[in-house]
Structure formats: structure tokens, C-alpha cells
Input
Amino acid sequence: KIYSAQTIKNPADSDDLLCVWETGKQIPFDVKRIYHIGNVKAGTVRGHHAHKKLEQILLCPYGSIEVALDDGTEVKNCLLDSPDKGLYVGPGVWHTMKWIESGSLLLVMASNFYVEEDYIRNYGKFKEKFPGETS
Ligand code: T46
Output
């Protein structure tokens, strides 16, 4: 699911864009952690894991990043290419993030602190736990 920031345009005729994300409004969970990943070269693919419980909103405030989401049944791609677009990634979704442009910034708001035990980093184990509708 895509969430949209509250966008505030400068009353003066400018291209400035202020994007606002608030818990309970544009974010469907309480945010406990924010992290961002930058200085990444174009073509780099990160991720390759699913979470057991964590909920996250992925944003690309600068540049463009393609996110592939696999719920065990089908794979969907989502291009994050606009600062007001936020992609919800819930539990049980295997995801990868591909940097389309060098220097793009991935900003993530997460529902919990970093807990390595919440990660499923093996695709076979992911399919066992989340077999999807067709398997
Ligand atoms: C996710 C995607 C979108 C920490 O120690 N604390 C943290 O808060 C994070 C996010 C990572 N780390 C450590 C864990 C690894 O040893 O940093 C290292 C790199 O993390 P990882 O390989 O998981 O990074 P990505 O880009 O593949 O995934 C990250 C998040 O980890 C993950 O939860 O959903 O971004």
C-alpha cells in the first residue's frame, strides 16, 4: 500500500515542497526507529529479507529506488520516485530495494527497534513460513 505525505506548498510561487509524516495520520503505526541509507551506487540491490513482525514505511526523499515485494504468492514492483510517496511494507513480505539513481536516499520509519531475530534472511525459510496462496 502506498501512503502519501501531507504536502505543503509555499504560498509564494516556488517549487519548494514540504512533506509531513505523522503517526496516526500518514503513518499507520507508532514510529520507534528511523534510519536512512545513502551513498549507494546505481544498480545496487539491498534487502533480500522479510520481517516477522516489523512494519515499515519506505520513502525516497531524493532520487529513485525500485522496491520489489514478494508476499509468497506474487512479486510486485513499486518505484519510489517522489518525496511524498511512502510504501508500507508489513510482516511476511520478502523485499529488495534497487537503487535506480546513484545517491538516492532511502528513508525508513519502523514500528520497532532493530531486532536481528525479526529478520528472515533465507528465502527457503521465508517460503516455509509464508507459503502464499498458490503453493
Ligand atoms: C529493511 C530494509 C528496507 C543495525 O544494526 N541497525 C539497524 O537499524 C539497521 C537497519 C541495520 N543494522 C545492521 C544490520 C546489518 O548488519 O546494519 C547492517 C546492514 O543491514 P541490512 O543488510 O539489513 O540492510 P538492508 O539495506 O538490506 O535492509 C534495511 C533494513 O535492515 C531492513 O529492516 O527492511 O532496509
Notes: Helices lie at 123-129. The chain has one domain: 2-129. The first strand starts at residue 2 and ends at 4. The mean pLDDT is 95.
